[in-house]
Amino acid sequence: IWLARQLEVEEVGVIAYASFFVFLSSSLVDMGFAAALIQKDSISREHIESVFFVNLAIGITLFAAILIWADSLGLLLNEPMLSGVLQPLSAKFLFGAVAAVPMALLKRNMMFKEMAIINTLSLCVGTLVGVFIVMKGGGVWGLIAQQLLLGVMQAIGYMYVNGSSFNISFKYAALKELLQFSVHSFSIRMIGAANQQGTNFIIGYLMGTATLGVFSVANRIHQTLNLLLHEVVSQVLFPVFSSIQDDRKRISSALFTINKGTGYLLFPIYLFLVISGQDMVITLVGDRWSESGRVLSILAIGGLSTTIVYTTSTLIVSIGRPDVINYLNSLGTIGKLCVFSLFSYAGLATASIAWIVFLAVMFPIRMYYFKKVYDYEIGKYIHPFLKPLTLTFVSGMVTFLMLETFSFTEGLNRFLFSLLVFFAIYSILIVMLSKDDLSNGYKLVLNSKK
After folding, report:
1. How many CB atoms within 10 Å of residue 163?
2. Which residues contact residue 246 at a Cβ distance below 8 angstroms, ignoring those fewer than 6 apart?
3. Which of 309, 326, 328 is nearest to 378 (CA)?
4. Is 42 in a helix, a strand, or coil?
5. Vertex 398 angle, CA 394 and 400, to 5°
6. Could you count the other beta carbons within 10 Å of the beta carbon of residue 128?
7. DSSP label of 427
8. For burial by CB atoms within 10 Å, which of 7, 11, 68, 232 has the most?
9. Among 163, 169, 144, 147, residue whose Cα is nearest residue 82
10. What is the pLDDT of residues 205-236, one digit of tens each?
């Protein structure tokens, strides 16, 4: 956020544009073999060293390819600044290739505490160095340095904590044993890469880096909130569903309580962003990013529907049908890329609205597959969301009317006023009308932890 305040919109856009190629190529480095090392019951030294060899070979190849073709790619896309960013960032392929196997072994050995320390330390050091470079007038090189330092420190940290060296050797038979699972893991990863970064390429190519800079700030805030909020909820959902997956009566009861709790937690956050997203962005990163705030408010509308269907995805995976979710996610990714391509001529805000309309179209499709796979009544599933959704909209409507009545100027004062009013009204409504629902949700969390 601080770096966005210091950099030009075009500089942020160029980094986001380059991130598409870096993220996509980084997904190619591993090819899913690291995940196969984690999943396989028993692995030998031959498995480990063969995967390390393949990752390193792919990483070196991609690094060399970007160095050679970056200038041509910049000319092809009519973005001369792109090559100057891509070439130094291509070193991340080497760091990623070195880090993939040690990181997989740490995960396999449940050394998550050590990984958290490495990641946190690397992020802090990278951010501090990036901020220092920007303060000294380095501009976009601050973001480049942040990314490179993050990658190299993670690679060194994983290698050091893992405590073992890797010989450069290759056994095809060992690699073949990992191939089946790695292909499945790789396909999931590529779908995720296309979903997360594909839009950046389309916007950058069709609308320019300035527009991409506007979108990337809004999308980064939106994606970060999605990750944090859904990850917190999934920590409760997955163990609950896993422990009672063969008991439909208990799942039905759990769904009712979980859906209510999810609605009470997530609906107000997303609706608040719809109302005050622009004020929040102006407060955090400055007036020149106000258009990012408008885009954030539009994207937040999609969070309301995502909150409802999110539980279905978790349940379908917990009963052993991840193939259905992969199919739906692939369909959603293709649709997202097509929507932004087709509506790019109309501007970023219009394309974002079209994306929200597409999510509305996908909603009944996802619910149809949920009913088909689990045979659960859709009306029964949606019913628990109605009360928290109603309370959220009442709070939002009152807040909106008060904002219009007092006519605040966009920015800090309007943001703080809307924050206070919205969540004060929402809290009062919950205490008056939904105290028992929250108590039941809290008990469910405690039971799931036990």
Report:
1. 8
2. none
3. 309
4. coil
5. 115
6. 12
7. H
8. 11
9. 144
10. 888 888 888 888 888 888 878 777 776 566 56
